[in-house]
Amino acid sequence: MKNLAKGITRNHAPHIIIVGGTSGLGLALALHHQTLGWQVSVVGSSTEKIADINSQHPAIVTYVCDLTDPSQTQTLLDSLSDISFQRLIYSAGSYTNERIHHLNQADSDQMLAINLQAFEQVFRWASAPLKQQNQSLDVTKNVRPSLICIASIAGTIDYPYASLYAKSKRAMIATASAYRAALVPYDIQVNCIASGYIDTQALRDLNDGDASHKPFIMSTQTAVDHIMQAIDDDVELAIFPRSIRYIASALNYLPKPVLNWILRSKLDKSS
Q1: Is the peptide bond before 241 cis (omega within 30 degrees of 0)?
Q2: What is the C-alpha radius of gyration for the chain, rounded to an integer number of angstroms?
């Protein structure tokens, strides 16, 4: 793991760390917090994207790390241990379309590592300093310590034939809920975001450059607005847009055999 940070400015502004913050929704959240006056640190795997941020947004502190490597991730976390931060967002994710491609070993390992294993490693690490800070007199005033993770609407549907991606996001939602309950005595906020399609470059790349056909797709800025509102309102599991939240809720009320019949052909390959 190579640290490309030039150093943290020490002042009284609150500090946010965004894992998976070098592109797409993560970067949009980083830039939004920067406009609010936060110190911002981002973690990403692409040295090219890191270099772009260093050039275009020099006030953002950058780290490069391969989250599929637990030892490299731990080295990153050790390097962040001296930083006082008030908010961490886990926005990293990996997706393979299992309706089109049968999972190979590399894709399977990567999705499990980034969507679940590294997420658990980062949340476990981040909760410790937040608990210590919240018991000291050094916590930035008027900023409640918080842990936030970006899951997916796919993880909200209880569907036995779901993809690895959906199952890992469902596990992320459950893990965040457990952390939320465990951190109540410390007054640490935990929120999980489960959105529908967001018009990011990554989604466009998966759809031959154009994702406009995706149902209920929203702009990145709209997603940022929803997420910031969910944080302000301390929503445990924020599902948006509203239309897709209603659909997911309705599907979960269906008898399991009916749900399986409806979704298996839509979400999975033929067995």
Answers
A1: yes
A2: 19
| Res 229: pLDDT | 96
Residue 101 token pair: 């491609």
What pairing do the DSSP bridges indicate for beta strands 61-64 and 87-90?
unpaired
| Residue 171: Cβ within 10 Å count | 17
3-state class (DSSP) for residue 101: coil
pTM: 0.84
DSSP letters for 73-90: HHHHHHHHTT---SEEEE
- What average pLDDT values come out for the chain (271 residues) when binned by 10 residues? 41 91 94 97 96 97 97 96 94 77 86 96 97 66 90 84 87 98 97 80 60 66 94 95 66 65 52 32
Query: How far is Cα 259 from Cα 159, in angstroms, rounded to an integer?
Result: 7
Residues written for the chain:
271
Closest CA to 197 of 249, 262, 151, 153: 153
Tokens 């499990």 belong to residue: 112
Q: Read off the DSSP letter of residue 13.
A: S
Question: Please, are residues 64 and 259 in contact by the beta-carbon 8 Å criterion?
Answer: no
Residue 229 CA to residue 46 CA, distance in Å, equals 29
φ/ψ of residue 160, rounded to 5: -65, -25
Residues 6+ apart with CB under 8 A from 121: 70, 73, 74, 77
Q: H or E segment at 253?
A: helix 242-253
Q: What CATH architecture is 15-267?
A: 3-Layer(aba) Sandwich (3.40)
Quote the CA–CA distance of 117 and 84 in Å, as a whole number.
Answer: 24
Cis peptide leading into residue 70 (ω within 30°): no
